[in-house]
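Researcher: I've got a protein sequence and the SMILES for adenosine-5'-triphosphate. Could you write out the 3D structure of the bound complex as structure tokens? I'd like something to compare against our soaking experiments later this week.
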Amino acid sequence: MFPVTEDPILSVRNLKKHYPITQGILSRQVGAAKAVDGISFDIAEGETLGLVGESGCGKSTAASSIIRLEEATEGEVIFNGGDRAGRSRNGDGSHPNDVTTFDDEELKAFRRDAQMIFQDPSSSLDPRMTVGSSVAELLLVHGMTDKQRRREIVEDLLERVGLEAEYYDRYPHEFSGGQKQRIALARALVLNPEFIVADEPVSALDVSIRAEILSLLNDIQEEFGLSMLFISHDMSVVREVCDRVAVMYLGEIVEIGDTDEVFSNPQHPYTEALLSAIPRPDPSAQRENIELKGTVPSPTNPPSGCKFHTRCHMVIQSDEFDLEQERWRALLTFRDRVRSGEVDPESIREALALENDDPSSIDDETIKQELRMEFDLAEELYDPEAESILQDALDALADGRIEDANEQLSTFTTPCEKEVPQETDHGNGHLSSCLRNKPETEHGAPLADD
Ligand SMILES: Nc1ncnc2c1ncn2[C@@H]1O[C@H](COP(=O)(O)OP(=O)(O)OP(=O)(O)O)[C@@H](O)[C@H]1O
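Model: Sure. Here is the predicted complex with adenosine-5'-triphosphate in place.
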């Protein structure tokens, strides 16, 4: 389930965007990049929902599928803006307001009511046109033939976004990045939309002017009664503008809730890690810094079970072992690296030999120590059973018996790679999908109490 909003302006249900991976002259489909893999949420009138996650999580794909710059693979995007509110489902179960099935005429009306602001404001401004004409052309396309009236509306808008009416006749290159984003905002507002998708609207801007643009967005949203989907990789930006936040990882929403609630009481380790990256004014008050190692895996071949388990600092330990959480994480990372062939003891041996005056001194013991150091595996693991398996695996690796090493390391398994987490409801529309949030008897205490 997902938090359902009464009379939402936008309802996204099980939205998927899978890009086919093709091979050969016949372009046979051999797989799919599941960039968006079944997301659901509502946005209420006048509300801003933040969609946050690292680069590659699928935020932009979600946005362009919602606004139908790309065709969704599956799912519904029901838009109740314009005069569409209150419509009910057709006999066949489809919805007349489903953007993914709009015909050309419906799409044109939707494109008036729903606008998009991009990271690079220049992308929506033609360098050969004055900024005024760039904004006014939308009015013309949508049927306003009175040139003077168009000019008046645009001049008024330029002022409302903090610029001057006289800027109408200037060209984009005459403006700074922040000013261009203000013009792009005027362009997005000129058709009096009800819904705006803002895709990283401040991340290309100078840090010094980000706050100004965010505060402008807040003001404009209130003044125009806009609903907004606000996309960002930056939690601190999300906190400035969003009423609610949805945290996205590898095509899925792993946590959603009121911004205050999610920030003060995160329930998913990924959210926790994103929050810990926010710089604090007082470093001594900084919460534990959780380092998110590596990058988001490819959506072509996502990890099994919980997709975050390959990077999760809270990855659940199997009942057989009793290790510090940090070491358990390190062990699983080591196991995965060996399995994927990324650990090559011979190249470590060669590298160490090059650094050393006496290459003959690089024996197996040195290689094993080096591996322990590189993978944070401690000189000796606290759990004797785990230590013995690790020693066997390291012996096998140093000896070039990779298969044996893999076999030893495959003893280390986690429920997180086997079981897909279901959503847990924390009340007040705050949901998360993490196995740790299952009842205590199964996987230990919930995240918040750990
Ligand atoms: N046309 C495409 N074909 C195949 N894969 C794609 C395509 N477009 C995007 N992807 C993949 O889908 C995933 C999600 O990309 P997307 O750009 O939506 O992420 P994002 O969270 O918006 O990141 P960023 O902030 O870097 O844009 C990525 O792994 C990306 O490589």
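Model: The chain has 15 helices and eleven strands. Residues 325-413 form one domain.
Researcher: Great, I'll pass this along to the crystallography team.
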